[in-house]
Amino acid sequence: MHPDLESIMLSQETIGARVQELAARLDADYAGKNPLMVCILKGSVFFYTDLLRAMKEPVELDFMSISSYGASANTSGEVRLLKDLGCKIEGRDVVVVEDIVDSGYTLSYLKRLLHSRGPASVRICALLDKVSRRVVPLDVDYKGFDCADEFVVGYGLDYAERYRTLPYIGILKRSVYEK
Ligand code: PRP
Questions:
Q1: Helix 12-29 / helix 45-54 crossing angle, nearest 10 deg
Q2: What CATH number has the domain spanning 12-149?
């Protein structure tokens, strides 16, 4: 375990098994629909690549970058679109893939933006859901795990751009982000 962590919350094996289950559900729900799978950079990149490789149905890939946190530990509520999709989504079935939903600001902004472009559907697939932190209502259609209100890093999740490449998700020691 990384020395900056207090404990491991989700092991590589636990995450892998859940990703397989989510991929099977998506395969069943989107059979023959060729959905557009949207990766929200950067945190969801490992979840996204694992999830899409576990799916058997054909899908298309695209990427967006939306910033709400900057380098601080708390959300500001301010959402900025840093990189938009490279394709039109009118009439398409869209699945937004996220690592974590916290306040809900990012995804509610994103859902509004995508719906304004006339897609057939927009659903959310998120690995972690911190329901207790929700400020704006936001339902997660495909959820990996409920997440306690802890500072979690790894498997894409960062603190000040660190720890993203850890293969598991762990709880960061308070001493790391309070110093
Ligand atoms: C995280 C996460 C979501 C957002 C969720 O991204 O990936 O996009 O915060 O928080 P919210 O529900 O409070 O809006 P972050 O801005 O940390 O960027 P990153 O994925 O590049 O690390």
A1: 60
A2: 3.40.50.2020
